[in-house]
């Protein structure tokens, strides 16, 4: 009724004006014809006489049309409002649950709410992670974890978010090619726990899940914490806007950011071009899933060929060689150099190591590994159920599976969107001595090409460097402003009996001086870890002081190794402009502070035999 009354108030003036217009037109006609007819009194127009029927009929027609039109408009308006109201009610009612009753206004029975699980209520707009992180760490490896610990140590209330494209929490990579393969536990692939050379058991994960806070709670926890967002990849970085974009288009802003994206295993182009049958029978070893996949392959196939003679290739050759005794697995290792670790070790020591790998005395006591040196791969194909590897000298190797261990490519995909510089010589993000790429962006680990204040610009791909650079980046993100002066070490073990630790620039193309002594039973990685009580040697590294070496006053020619058949233990010095820039400790352990001191001093030494005595290699 209220709507109709308002409508009549609006239409009444229109009707009156129409009536007035009709009367004026009638008068105009009469005046033009100079005739005067009696006018119908205005008070009786609604019931005029038969003589005035034309005027009244026109009046009725106009008023009637106006009423009909107004009524139709009112009907359509009311009906449309009702429909929009119903649609709005239905939309509101559908928010908690997509399946809603037909009459959303009707009260639901008392038991109805119990049928909707609480977890389903936020389903349409799930909150999986915070939209802002004061400290954002891209990458879930060793460098990120070291940085997170360092940040929390200096800023106990810090909120740290780690984003990793892997499904796992931060873990250490060295056991994937070392200790895990020497475990006798058949469930090691599932537990990822292993016994160190000292006999103690531990997990590859740095911390259990209980150590971390959930990403949903990171902004709410009172004292901050470290959260890990797994299975998410950062695909774009807005440096000016201080935010990153994930692969699902989600954006997260930050105050300070660390890039620790690590690297991607390289592959041979001949393998990439060989087709699907070859590529699906090729492993690029880097992650936990690669270890699990290769473990399965080693149990299901008859032969595996490892291409690469570096750290990873040699370690995997020894690891798989040990397993071959129980499964009749044929293990082949091929590389373009003349011997194992040919790019790192002096030729005489590389050849000695290769002979040990072949004989199996250190890798596997009964079977050993078939080593093919100076092998340049020309083509790879799949024929008659086998992968066929053709070498440039005409040799052909047939195998069931290939492991390509030919190096690492630093992951720098974010450089383009972020506008960060990539070093043209070494690869990786180019940073300064404080590991800064921008005022609030740092880079650590394999992806960092940093300036070493002692040895110049470098990029290092080792576990201890990830620990040291990640820790330093975390300190600098909290205001420390420290330069990278610490010389990180790296190590490799060819089984429990042969191992070495290295520091600085170790390149076989540099002049070297080696000083060796007879090894004893305690000069093995196993004995060293039993003595120290630790398994990951970089974790036992200390900043211990070491006395400066005293050089002899009488120059002597570089010593020639006396033991040509057995290099049990010793020290190899790498020289550049007669200054020691790198040191390898061959089956000599817990002497790294001394080596670090020698490189830091950067002095020229007349007699390296005297310097070698600082490592106590002649002690029984």
Automatic annotation (TrEMBL):
Chief site of localization: cytoplasm
UniProt keyword Transmembrane helix, yes or no: no
Keywords linked to the UniProt accession: Acetylation, Apoptosis, Cytoplasm, DNA-binding, FAD, Flavoprotein, Isopeptide bond, Membrane, Mitochondrion, Mitochondrion inner membrane, NAD, Nucleus, Oxidoreductase, Phosphoprotein, Transit peptide, Ubl conjugation
One annotated Gene Ontology cellular component of this protein: mitochondrial inner membrane
SMART domains hit by this protein: AIF_C
All residue ranges annotated as the Mitochondrial apoptosis-inducing factor C-terminal domain in the record: 473-601
Residues covered by the Protein MGARP N-terminal domain: 46-95
Keyword Transit peptide: yes
Gene3D superfamilies tied to this protein: 3.30.390.30, FAD/NAD(P)-binding domain
InterPro entries xrefs: AIF_C (IPR029324), FAD-oxidoreductase/Apoptosis (IPR050446), FAD/NAD-bd_sf (IPR036188), FAD/NAD-binding_dom (IPR023753), FAD/NAD-linked_Rdtase_dimer_sf (IPR016156), MGARP_N (IPR032773)
Origin: domain of life: Eukaryota
UniProt-annotated location(s): Cytoplasm, Perinuclear region; Mitochondrion inner membrane; Mitochondrion intermembrane space; Nucleus
Cofactor: FAD
Region (Disordered): 521-563
Compositional bias ranges of the Polar residues kind: 531-554
Domain FAD/NAD(P)-binding: 136-469
SUPFAM superfamilies in UniProt: FAD/NAD(P)-binding domain, FAD/NAD-linked reductases, dimerisation (C-terminal) domain
A GO BP annotation: mitochondrial respiratory chain complex assembly
Subunit structure: Monomer (oxidized form). Homodimer (reduced form). Upon reduction with NADH, undergoes dimerization and forms tight, long-lived FADH2-NAD charge transfer complexes (CTC) resistant to oxidation. Also dimerizes with isoform 3 preventing its release from mitochondria. Interacts with XIAP/BIRC4. Interacts (via N-terminus) with EIF3G (via C-terminus). Interacts with PRELID1. Interacts with CHCHD4; the interaction increases in presence of NADH.
Family per record: Belongs to the FAD-dependent oxidoreductase family.
PANTHER family according to UniProt: APOPTOSIS-INDUCING FACTOR 1, APOPTOSIS-INDUCING FACTOR 1, MITOCHONDRIAL
Protein role: Functions both as NADH oxidoreductase and as regulator of apoptosis. In response to apoptotic stimuli, it is released from the mitochondrion intermembrane space into the cytosol and to the nucleus, where it functions as a proapoptotic factor in a caspase-independent pathway. Release into the cytoplasm is mediated upon binding to poly-ADP-ribose chains. The soluble form (AIFsol) found in the nucleus induces 'parthanatos' i.e. caspase-independent fragmentation of chromosomal DNA. Binds to DNA in a sequence-independent manner.
Protein name listed in UniProt: Apoptosis-inducing factor 1, mitochondrial
Lineage summary: Eukaryota, Metazoa, Chordata, Craniata, Vertebrata
